[in-house]
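Field reference: sequence -> structure
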Amino acid sequence: MAMTGRELLAASEALRGAFSPEEFDQLLVFHLDRRREDYAGPGNFRTVVFQVLTAAEREGWTPRLLAAARESNPTNAALMKAAEALQLASVRADAGDALERLLGRQPTFVDISAWRERLGRLEGQVGRVEIIVPRGVVRGTAFLVGPDTCITNHHVLERVIAGTAAPADVVVRFDYKRSGDGEVLNAGTEHRLAERDWLVDASPPSPVDSMVDPGRQLPGDEELDYALFRLAGEPGSEPVGGAASMPAPPRRGWLDTTTGADAGGADGTLFVLQHPSGEPLKLAFGPVVGLNGNGTRLRHLVDTERGSSGSPCFNSKLELVALHHAGDPDFSVGHRPEYNEAIPVSAVERLLARRDLGSSAFVPGGSR
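Structure field:
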């Protein structure tokens, strides 16, 4: 996918702002096995980056260059915006303008660059769940809430919890990147379940979730469709993209669940960071509908697909507010789905506290 002149200019400025000349050389060597002097002659840093980008466009490795740059500096807002043109960020370029207009209308001031920096950090903390089953692969989304602890939906891991699938057949894959034309740029960083005591806590979905017309029935406060589990090692303490060879690689971190944030009410906007249909990470956004009667479900109108189950849902400040889990259960012919649904994080925290698991399950401060 060739970049336009304007996009190349933005990429050049972003690379020069994100790296020193020495760091740029290290980026090329450590991530791409290329040497700057093979592509650029003497000149100032602006000229060097221009020559390298020109060669990358000619030879077809611009997506790999920008993907590597984002792994090395994931919170740089200018790099994220440049990467959007090649679909190397969770936001598509054609959605970027709409996103900026939406954030610009928020009642409280939103710094777009700071927002992109935070989104860049969050991208490394959300992974694709893959479970090998006899008829194929079950996929979902999960996110880190501690150095080694993730959360997803109970129904995503249901077979493993029930013992009909093996824990060894589960992979959580972070950093999966693919260019707009389908080339896999990073197969991702794989993490397996911890060998012992991998399941920290779980809460099943409710029968109400599958009722087309539940009337006044509400899900119970212990029917929250979540599974809290541990991975081998500490992916939250490891570098993004497995970039351990770069000097001072950025730590992946984890989502902070302790902000006490809400979704902003019925007039708010919800942002869902997800792996729809197992695709690379995408950000979708849409309006909040509202909470149900006992605060166990949050309805919204954000587009999701199979594979989005277990995705983190954020308010306009990118504070975690919910765990996406399902959609309208009415699958009758001709019916258009009317809503999607998430589990408020506050409801999960209340249940964990009642089970004396709150302090050991969620670790504060991971996204800072």
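Note: The mean pLDDT is 90.
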